Amino acid sequence: xxxxxxxxxxxxxxxxxxxxxxxxxxxxxxxxxxxxxxxxxxxxxxxxxxxxxxxxxxxxxxxxxxxxxxxxxxxxxxxxxxxxxxxxxxxxxxxxxxxxxxxxxxxxxxxxxxxxxxxxxxxxxxxxxxxxxxxxxxxxxxxxxxxxxxxxxxxxxxxxxxxxxxxxxxxxxxxxxxxxxxxxxxxxxxxxxxxxxxxxxxxx
Length: 204
Fold this sequence. Notes:
Layout: H1 2-25, H2 28-32, H3 49-67, E1 72-75, H4 78-87, E2 101-103, E3 123-124, E4 142-143, E5 151-156, H5 164-167, E6 170-183, E7 186-199
Parallel strand pairs: 1-2, 1-5
Antiparallel strand pairs: 3-4, 5-7, 6-7
C-alpha cells in the first residue's frame, strides 16, 4: 500500500509540475481559459519583435522606392539593433563583418557593436587614389562610404527629437512613422522611426 501511495503522489507531483511549466512557458493558456493577467507578463519582453521588424522593413522598402536609393538602419540601443537584425528578412549587410543594423555612433566602447565595422568608420584607400569629386587625400588616407547617404533611425517610445549624435551627423532628421505592437489589447512595444538625410560624419 505504501508503494502504491508513493507512486500516486509522484504522479500527482509530476502532473502539477508539468502544468505549471506549460503555463510559465505559454501564458496564453491562461488567457484562453478566460483568466486575465493583471500583473505584467514577463514573456511580453520576448514578443512583438518580429512583427515590429516587419513594419520597419516595409517602411525601409517604401522609402527606398520613393527616394531611389538604399537606406541603412540605425537603432538607439544594442538590444533593439540585435533583435531587428535577427528578424530582418533582407539583412543586407553593407560590407564584410557589418551588422545589418548599427547603433548610434560614439567614440566610446560601449558593447560588441563598438568592435564591429561601423557606419562612421573610414575605409583606407591606397596612396594616390583620388577622392570622389576629384580631390586628393592629404591628411587622411581614407573615406567614409556612408557620406551623403540616408538612413532610418529607430528608437523606443515616442520622442520629438533624436539623440545629439544622430542630429549632428545628418543634415536633417524627421519623424516618419510610429510602430506600435499590441497583444490582447495591451501595447507591447512602441518604436518611432526617423528619416535621416545626408550623412556627413560627426566633427572631431
